[in-house]
Amino acid sequence: MNLKGKVVIITGASSGIGAETAKLFSSHGALVTAVGRDEVRLTQVADICEALHGNRPLCVRVDLTEDGGCEEVVKKTVETYKKIDVLVNCAGKTIVSSLFENSMETFDDLVSLNLRVPYKLCQLCVPYLKLTKGNVVNVFGNKGVHRPGFLLSAILTSALQSFTVSGARDLSCEGIRMNAVRPGVTRTHYLANFNVDEDLMDLTYNEIAKAQPQVINEPEDVAKMILFLAGYEHPNLTGNNLCLDGGATSC
Question: What is the value of pTM for the model shown?
Answer without folding.
Answer: 0.88
